[in-house]
Amino acid sequence: MTPETATKTDDALHRELEKTWGDKPGIWGSLTSVNHKTIGKRFIVTAFCFFVFAGILAVLMRIQLARPENHFIGADLYNQIFTMHGTTMMFLFAVPIMEAIAVFLVPLIVGTRSIAFPRLNAFGYWIFLFGGIMIFVAFILNVGPDAGWFAYVPLAGPQYAPGKRVDFWAQLITFTEVSALVVATELITTIFKLRAPGMSLNRIPVYVWSILVMAFMVFFAMPTIALASTSLILDRLVSTHFFNPAEGGDPILWQHLFWFFGHPEVYIIFIPATGFVSAIIPTFVRRPIFGYTALVLSLISTAFIGFGLWVHHMFAAGLPKMGQSFFTAATLMIVIPSGVQIFCWIATIWSGRPIFKTPFLFSLGFFFVFIMGGLTGVMLASWPLDLQLHDTYFVVAHFHYVLIGGAVFPLFGALHYWFPKFTGHMLSESLGKVTFWLMFIGFNLAFFPMHILGLIGMPRRVYTFQAMNGWAGLNLLATIGGVVLTLGVLVFIINFFINRKRGELAAENPWGASTLEWATSSPPPSYNFLHIPTVAGRDTLWVQPEDQPVVVGIRSDVRQVLITKMLDAEPEHIDQFPEPTIWPLLAALSATGLFIGSIFNPWAVVWGSIPVTVSLIAWFWPKGRKAEERPPKEVQQNLGEQKLNAQEEAA
Amino acid sequence: MTPRRTIDVSRLPTYAFGHHALTWWATWSMILMEGTMLVILLISYFFLRTAVPEWPPAHTLPPNLFWGTLNTAIILASVFPNQLAKKAAESLDVKGVRLWMIVTLLFGVAFAVVRIFEFKNLNCHWQQNAYGSIVWFNMGFHTAHVLTDMVDTVVLIVLMFVGPIEGPRFVDVSENSIYWNFVVVIWLLIYSVIYLAPRFL
Amino acid sequence: MRARQINWGFLTWVALVNTTVAATTQSSVDPAGPQAQHISQLWWVMLYLLTGVFILVMSLLSIGAFRRRSKAAETSGRNVIQTDSLRETKMARVVMGGVVVTTVILFALLVSSFIVGRTIYSIPKEPTVLTIDITGHQWWWDVRYENQVASQIVTTANEIHIPVGRQILFKLNSADVIHSFWVPNLHGKTDLIPGHPAETWLKADRTGVYRGQCAEFCGHQHAHMAFEVVVESEEQFQAWYESQLKSAPAQLTSSQSRGLQLFLSKPCVMCHTIQGTDAGGKVGPDLTHLASRQTIAAGALQNNRTNLSRWILNSQDVKPGNHMPPIPLNSEELNFVLDYLESLK
Question: Which chain C residues are Cβ-neighbours of A448 within 8 angstroms?
Answer without folding.
Answer: 12, 16
